Structure formats: C-alpha cells, structure tokens
Amino acid sequence: MPVRSKPPCARTHTRRLTAALRSEILATVPRLRAFAFSLTASSDRADDLVQETMVRALTHIAQFQPGTNLRAWLFTILRNQFNSEYRQRRWTTEDADGIYIDSLKTVPQQSSWLEFQELRLALTKLPPEQREAVVLVGASGMTYEEAAAICGCAIGTIKSRVNRGRTRLAELLSIETIEDLGPDQESRAVMSTSR
Predict the structure, then answer these.
(1) Which of 67, 75, 113, 171 has the maximum number of C-beta atoms within 10 A of its C-beta?
(2) Please, what is the average pLDDT of the chain?
C-alpha cells in the first residue's frame, strides 16, 4: 500500500503557521473567550465558539495577510461564526424564561463578584449593537478602529454605540461617576471613557 503524503494545501497551512504566529493566536484566546461569553452568556457555548473560531482560523491561515491585525481577523471570524449560529438557532428557544439558569445561581462570596454580575445583567439589557461595541472597546481593549473593522461599520458609528451603551449602563447601574464602581477592573474597563 503506497504511503500518502499531505495534500499541497495542508503543507501550505503548516508552513504559514510559524511559532510567532501560533504564539500570537494563543495569546488572543482569553480575549476571544471573553467576547464569546459576552455574546452567548454561556461558558460552554463560549468555549465551543472559540474552538470553532480556532479551527476556522487555522484552516484558513493562508488567507491571513501578514502585517495586518491578527486579533481583529480572529475577532471577525468569531463574530461571523456567532452570527451564523444565531441565524440557525433563532427559531429555537433555550430556557426562554430563565428558569433553568436561575436554578444554577449561588450566593456570591465577594462584592466585586456581585458588581460584575450586575454589570453582566445590565449588558444583556443593551441593544446587541451597543453591547457588542462596549464589550469590544471596553472589556476587550480594542481601539475604535479595530472594533469598527470587526463590526463592519464606520468608526463614528462605533464611538456612538459605545457612548450610548455606556450611558445606558450608567443609568441601569445608577452610576454617576467612575468612583461609584467598586474595585472590579472589568467593570471599570467597560465604563471607562479613556479610549
């Protein structure tokens, strides 16, 4: 039986995935997971979404243009994958009343955890476009330019969405100044207007 060699496309993918590129991809995983969690509100679904993003990125690594923004490319893949899955699932409802998720709650041990949970709940009350912009710019540390590229809209649109989202979050959380937030760094990053 003859030994098969790798198909030419597989060799190309292997050649393009250098150690530096692999390290850069792996360094992006925590932020991808945080973004995926903000979209899905489920750690299991977020992990699945990140895994699918990695598979798609590695499968299509030859399409990545060296010298461009790898992080934005990966976030775009994740967002597109989420949107595809959302379109497929929009006719099904998982725990629409929230009864199952409410049964999984535990009593919080720290006030910062409580504040973070309040922020998560408030984020779910934002329109999807505003939530996505706030999470990309605030929680994921993206620039307005990177977030605009990921969302496929103008920079001014992203700035507007972030501003309106933060204003609404402040109303929902009864925050007048950033000092009203506790020591939770994630909450401060989301609400900070320093970008």
Answers:
(1) 75
(2) 78
Q: Please state the pTM of the whole predicted model.
A: 0.51
Q: What is the pLDDT of residues 5-40, one digit of tens each?
A: 544 444 444 446 788 888 999 999 999 999 998 888
Q: Between 91 and 78, where is the model more confident? A: 78
DSSP per residue, the chain: -PPPPPPHHHHHHHHH--HHHHHHHHHHHHHHHHHHHHHHS-HHHHHHHHHHHHHHHHHTGGGS-TTS-HHHHHHHHHHHHHHHHHHHHTTS-SSTT-HHHHHT----SSHHHHHHHHHHHHHHTS-HHHHHHHIIIIIS---HHHHHHHHTS-HHHHHHHHHHHHHHHHHHTT-SSGGGS-S-HHHHHHH----
CATH number of the domain at 7-91, out of 1.10.1740.10, 3.90.1150.10, 3.90.550.10, 3.40.50.720? 1.10.1740.10
